[in-house]
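Service request form, structural biology core

Requester: graduate student, group of Dr. S.
Request type: structure prediction, single chain
Budget code: on file
Notes: please return the result as structure tokens.

Sequence provided:
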Amino acid sequence: MSEIVVPTSALPVPAGVDRVEHVGGAVVQHGRLSDRVYLLKPGESAEDDLALMERLARRHGYSKLFAKISEERQDAFLGAGYEIEARIPGAAGGPDLLFCSRFLDPGRKRERFTDQSLKVIRAAILESASARDGDTSKSRADDGILLQAADGSDAGELAALYGSVFATYPFPIGDAEFIRQTMSSGTAYFLARDAANEQVIAAASAEMLRSLAACEMTDFATLPERRGLGIAGLLLQALEREVIDTGVRMAFTIARSTSLGMNVVFARQGYTYAGTLVNNTNIAGRIESMNVWYRALA
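Core staff response, request fulfilled:
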């Protein structure tokens, strides 16, 4: 196994945001905000990835290691003490996508909102059954909303929306330059405007995993006064149509386990519950568990 050097001269990051680093082909995020190491993109070998994550955790004292990997690396991660918290079937016969975690502090593994999270999952599944029976009344936004694909010129408005909606977020989406960078890397954004004054009132994005013909539906935000109109569902449908044309065959999301609204949005759109990532992400001011949902698009 080759020696992994963690760079010490990475670019500065905004205060309160976890750092993303490129190391030996791998991409990791780590920091005090979510108190974890997150393997966003695997490197050349599972052994190097495991060593990198372990080294970062020892150096900084993080309490959770979290990895998004192909099932081809399952044995290496399970052998290193990781457990599978969620699994998404592979697209077009390809390998499954696994969400694996290793808890370095026993307290990190204890779910703090078990009853609330279970109620959300049950309610979302019931809503999914209702949608299959033909009740779509809760998925209709009013006529005064315009949906459009976003580009770099919209980054400032998107950043302002995200900054106003989220007290904390695992990535710096309140920064317009960060949004422009993700756009240039292939992330697709859609936004909703008020037809009367053109104010951005909601937005969402699709982050591509092209090697797996998959994408993550993420960054959903709606102004509080415009919630309950079904705008998130319309954004999700628009993103699905967009990514299918690029070859994506599997979509998934990671939704706050205590947020009934977002879990219902995905369940009603035909997404299947895949598992819960326990105490995984700092979002909206605290570390929360996250539910994984997926849907085959073709």
